[in-house]
Amino acid sequence: MIGNSQLFFLRLEGTEVTLPSSDSLNIRGDTWVIDKKLNEVSCMTTRKDLDSGRTVPSYTMGKFLCHRVGALAESAFMRIYSQVPIEDTQFLSSEVRAQQAVPSYQHSEIMALKRFKEGGCTIVPELLGYSETV
Prior knowledge:
- The chain has 134 residues and is of the alpha+beta class.
- Helix content is 16%, strand content 34%.
- It contains 3 helices and 5 strands.
- The chain has helices at residues 47-51, 94-98, 108-118; strands at 2-4, 16-19, 30-44, 59-68, 71-83.
- Strands 1, 2, 3, 4 and 5 form a 5-stranded antiparallel β-sheet that branches.
- The protein is globular, with a radius of gyration of 17 Å.
């Protein structure tokens, strides 16, 4: 798996993102507005990775500054993960790229933040919401 500079998250400033509530994590459902992209890193699976049996999907992750709707003074960071095509296949047909999709893959960062939230940990950034879609 290689990191590269290919960008996938373009012109998201002003986009509203509505996150559901979670009773188990004591998270209320809120709508956030993306103000600025801070960074983006793509980690693309290579053919060599596939040949060696690696099963982690290609993905890109972006970090954004955002604010809660109705509370402009309340800012937060938003991390967005998205599966992306395997290296050198991004221009192949949508049918070929669809075969690469992994239906359910959760990154370790969200798993850790959920565990910290469940445990009442206050020394890490608070998980204010999350959503997983396929």
